[in-house]
Amino acid sequence: MKALVLAGGSGTRLRPITHTSAKQLVPVANKPVLFYGLEAIAAAGIRELGLVVGDTQPEIEAAVGDGSAFGLQVTYLRQKAPLGLAHGVLIAREYLGDDDFVMYLGDNFVVGGINGLVDRFARERPAAQIMLTRVGDPRQFGVAELDAKGRVVGLEEKPAQPKSDLALVGVYLFSSAIHAAVGELKPSWRGELEITDAIQWLIEAGLRVESSVISGYWKDTGNVTDMLEVNRLVLESVEAQVRGQVDETSELVGRVVVERGAVVERSRVVGPAIIGEGARIQDSYVGPFTSIGAGCSVIGSEIEYSIVLPRASIAGVGRIEASLIGHDVEVTPAPNTPRAHRLVLGDHSKVQISS
Q: To bridge 44 with a disulfide, which of 80, 118, 168, 189 should be the other Cys (CB 3.0-4.6 Å)?
């Protein structure tokens, strides 16, 4: 079995962070979300992986390399534009050959890995196997309809009137039968080749499509709220470890990780939290569910339930909560002058101002 990981999306919901960074490389607990998927694939015993990439290929290739760090053999497959999940399968046709494969969306996060899913597919041999989870608003997802026996009888992409609350999770397993289905597709109303349409084609052709309704945790980390929630979940499982320097006047409470080269001075850090390599925390408070990236500095400030990407600087700020702060950002207090806001914002930014 091979793996096909889709990492060609532009990440519009994470702008402005993704104007300069691949969404799959935004870190969760100081590790790119893409890496969690690669580790899950390797843990399932899969070694050959096709990585579908777009305009951010140089950045992703620099981070992943040849895959040997994950126990994988990575082949990069260039997608000229994000034209749908099934389009990723289409351009990978030669690479995949007639092998079974697992398709994994590079910005998705699944707790518990995929070992059981892969084992079941190998044992039962359906044409396709999908993972489903119950969601509050299925109109935002591909939605599955099951019969009384739990078999998949229909799929629809982002329906206006959903027939169930079962959304497709971003992990799929396919036999080579999927290629015939993809070859028959026409672009949807969104202008994309939909994987839901390809699976529906398999159903209508009389081929068996199995599903599993997962009770564990899944998130599409496509927006800031979900990124922070996944960061919280991962930090819940960290073990306290201090490799850096913590002075006598500082206090670490609970499960706090201080990486090598990091310095904590006259500060209080309440876990679960992680302070990245070479970071500097001084005269500050770092609260629960916060990831401070490598080379960051937090001086005379308070921050919690946030993700701070490498080399960002926060100085003299009263309090920051529920925030995603990008690479090399500088956050400082505004001058105490007449009531006016001075802003330099990238396209598609969202700002909340207390006035």
A: 118
